[in-house]
Amino acid sequence: MKKDNKFLWTGVFTAIGASLCCITPVLALISGASGIASAFSWLEPLRPYLIGITVLVLGFAWYQKLKPKKQDDIECACEEEEKPNFWQSKKFLVIVTVFAALMTAFPYYSQIFYPKSEKEIVVADKSDIKKAEFVISGMTCESCNIHVNNEVYKLNGIINSNASYENGNALIEFDKIKTTVSEIKNVINSAGYSVTNIKTK
After folding, report:
1. 28 vs 184: CA distance, rounded Å
2. 179: domain CATH number?
3. Strand pairing partners for 37?
4. Which residue, of 112, 141, 174, is where some domain finishes?
5. How far apart are CA 54 and CA 47, in angstroms?
6. How far is 162 from 126, CA to CA, in rounded Å?
7. How many domains does the chain fold into?
8. What's the 3-state SS for the chain?
9. Which distant-in-sequence residues (6+ apart) come within 8 Å of 126 by Cβ?
10. Which domain, by its residues, includes 142?
11. Which residue among 13, 61, 174, 194 is buried most deeply as judged by most CB within 10 Å?
């Protein structure tokens, strides 16, 4: 039974590890410590393997729990407790499995934790509107996109921000009278990512 619990905890930790790179931007937003957002981005390449380990470990735990008992196990049952404690029950295994599934799927629903960053922009002169592409390293999932956009929208004069972890960039439209490329770069860097190049349009 103790071995079963080790498998369960392994499943929990690998599920958390699989999504840690996407959980930290949300934690950074909640705690106000933006700089930690990309602290676990190095885990992103390991994500498929961690998910695989989680599925295998939990699958084995369920197999152990549901497999038919052999005659020897039935004869030895008198030595064991009649009712297993909570940590060895199917109920606990269900809770661990649901938790692992929620952690593994976190990147797909993480946007619900971010506030809507819409604001009204007043532009006095259209010639003041500039566009720039910020090449960014450290973004690994949809959470990072939302986090970058959320931080950029805090600046005055931002008209549109479209970060993409797939492309490794953010296309930003802004009023050059109210903010600058340098200010935008500093905000992205202070959010825990790294602007490696800027292309103005």
Report:
1. 19
2. 3.30.70.100
3. none
4. 112
5. 10
6. 20
7. 2
8. CHHHHHHHHHHHHHHHHHHHHHHHHHHHHHHCCHHHCCCCHHHHHHHHHHHHHHHHHHHHHHHHHHCCCCHHHHHHHHHCCCCCCHHHCHHHHHHHHHHHHHHHCHHHHHHHHCCCCCCCCCCCCHHHEEEEEEEEECCCCHHHHHHHHHHHCCCCCEEEEEEECCCCEEEEEEECCCCCHHHHHHHHHHCCCEEEEEEEC
9. none
10. 115-200
11. 174
Quote the CA–CA distance of 178 and 124 in Å, as a whole number.
11
Residues 27 and 73 in one domain: yes
Per-residue pLDDT of the chain (201 residues; tens, 9 = 90+): 555 566 667 777 777 766 666 666 666 555 555 555 555 666 667 777 778 888 888 888 888 778 776 655 555 555 555 566 776 778 887 888 888 888 777 777 776 776 665 556 665 678 889 999 999 998 888 878 888 998 899 899 999 999 999 999 999 999 999 999 999 999 999 888 899 999 987
Same domain, 99 and 17: yes
In sequence order, what are the beta bridge partners of 135?
169, 197
In terms of domains, do 8 and 97 share one?
yes
Joined tokens for residue 57 = 């470990």
Distances (CA, A) of 147 to 34, 76, 92, 154, 188: 9, 56, 34, 11, 9
38 and 21 share one domain: yes
Question: Which residue do the tokens 């490329």 mark?
Answer: 181
> Which residue among 112, 141, 160 closes a domain?
112
**Same-domain check for residues 31 and 102:** yes
